[in-house]
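Standup notes
- HV: blocked on the assembly model, inputs below
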Amino acid sequence: MSTLTTPTEVSSPPRFTQDSLGWVPWVQPLAEEELTERHYEGLVQPQRAKNPYFRLLARDPEVLAARTRTDLDIFYNTAGGLGRAERELGAAVASRSNGCVYCASVHSGFATHYSKRGDDVQRLLDEGVRADLGDDVWNAVRDAVVALTATPVRFGAAHVAALHEAGLDDAAVLDVINSGAFFNWANRLMLSLGEPETT
Amino acid sequence: MDVIDTLSGITPGSRLDELRSRRPEAREQAQATYDALFSPVDASAISLVERYAVASFAAALFDVPAAEQHYATLLSFTDAGLAATVAEAVELGRGSGPYGSFSGDLAAESQPGADLVLLPHLADALGARLTAALQHTHMLVLHPRDSSRERLEPLVEAGWSADGIVTLSQLVSFLAFQVRVVAGLSVLVAEGSR
């Protein structure tokens, strides 16, 4: 089996979108029939074996398992902290800033789902990370995640103060940091191991 | 105390220790990722010294000093000569990100920027595999949206397997997360001590 996949004609999305997109791997995923017990442990959720992205990451099962559990706690542990919509917004802002059209589509869609603020979310996609997102909390999350996504990191005391002034507590600030930082991980995998496709 | 605590200056029983404990699985599994990358059950696709070299290079480019020092120390304990070579490569590679080109309707937003160009004596000292890996790492750190299928070909030509490319990509991408958590928590630690 060759290391890279065979090139195919891919219909690339021309802009950021909340529409559902596909993702085509450049590096060869494992075939479903190659998956062993160790790979399934890495996948955490067995239904992920249907997804070529996760079958590709299953090439390092221990890292995939730990990555997946980190992701689930940051985004789905709703004991206190930041709202679900704002965590997804953080993911979408990091993705918009790094330029990951695929990640941005998934997480802008989730942000809209949880907030019912599809127009604010769409402005982020259309205008970029300087767009007015409609209120102080969202704009403070936007600024914090953009600063955290920059290299060198520009996140500082002023961002924490703005998040507090918008009404967020320290647990919510930690969730902003975690969700923005996590998408600096996810964006790099999705961007560098394959490409988005309109479906 | 895990690596993120250590690099952020979080002490047991402190306010930040308690805050982090509210996301216990994220905390534990971030450390589990570090362990899986740097104490792997199978290092056949990417050796330990390759992992340390890539981590040291990436952490330096991310420019979070505590992390840069941590990974530089891991590498220099293992191979001091390679650590000196990587340190030279870092000086050629430093930059501000994220930059990179867009296509389609987004082309107007493109911010083209430099690739890493390694001087011949550095490429010789690194060897083909690490030369290709550091060039790829530079893109992943600073301009990930410049990724393409073509940019994976030098890795394949230098002998990287699919398993190796996945672990290399996870390592750099995990560090992108880890250094940002450290940078963010460090701000909160500094606030608490004011």
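- HV (later): unblocked. Residues 162-192 of chain B form the longest helix (31 residues). Chain B touches chain A through 71 residues (CB under 8 Å).
- Next: hand off to the docking folks.
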